Automatic annotation (TrEMBL):
The keyword Iron applies. It comes from Litoreibacter ponti. This is Isoquinoline 1-oxidoreductase alpha subunit. GO terms for molecular function: 2 iron, 2 sulfur cluster binding; metal ion binding; oxidoreductase activity. Residues 1-77 form the 2Fe-2S ferredoxin-type domain. InterPro entries: 2Fe-2S-bd, 2Fe-2S-bd_dom_sf, 2Fe-2S_ferredoxin-like_sf, 2Fe-2S_ferredoxin-type, 2Fe2S_fd_BS, Beta-grasp_dom_sf, Diverse_Oxidoreductases. The keyword Transmembrane does not apply. It comes from the Bacteria. Gene3D superfamilies: 3.10.20.30, [2Fe-2S]-binding domain (1.10.150.120). Keywords: 2Fe-2S, Iron, Iron-sulfur, Metal-binding, Oxidoreductase.
Length: 154
């Protein structure tokens, strides 16, 4: 089945069976491997992408549900004001440890800052709650979000 979607600002046509997770279309069909497979049940956040500007878990978002939608992946984050600020903060503060979860962490952080440009510590923790980090870099991730907020405010 042919599906048309706007992916990272470009209209794309993909062939996929109904019910195929968006994650597999991104990784296997479109070779966008920045979005990671973590758990497959939308519990860890490693596969987070933006669907019409909102963070979603691509492992549980099906290709037939994104017809005509706008999908943004980590590959396009540096091209956005908030994404660039988050990535700058991540580098400045050396947030990443193993890095596996970081694309999902960044995608969620961008979603948070788009909704709330100056979140409190508890608001960050609440919003980011569904993103797991096996290295337990949560304090560094929180600091990165706070720093990104400062960069955006400047």
């Amino acid at each position: 089945m042919a599906i048309s979607l706007k992916l990272n600002g470009e209209t794309r046509e993909v062939e996929a069976e109904p019910g195929t997770p968006l994650l597999w279309v991104l990784r296997d069909e479109l070779q966008l491997t920045g979005t990671k497979f973590g758990c497959g049940v939308a519990s860890c956040g490693a596969c987070t992408v933006h669907l019409d500007g909102q963070p979603v878990r691509s492992c549980q978002t099906y290709i037939d549900d994104v017809e005509g939608a706008e999908v943004t992946t980590i590959e396009a984050m540096a091209d956005t004001k908030i994404g660039a600020a988050v990535q700058q903060a991540w580098v400045e503060l050396d947030v990443v440890q193993c890095g596996y979860c970081q694309s999902g962490q960044i995608m969620s952080a961008v979603g948070l800052l788009a909704e709330n440009p100056k979140p409190s510590t508890s608001e960050i923790d609440d919003y980011m709650h569904g993103n797991a980090c096996r290295c337990a870099a949560y304090q560094r991730i929180r600091a990165g979000i706070q720093r990104a907020s400062e960069i955006l405010e400047a």
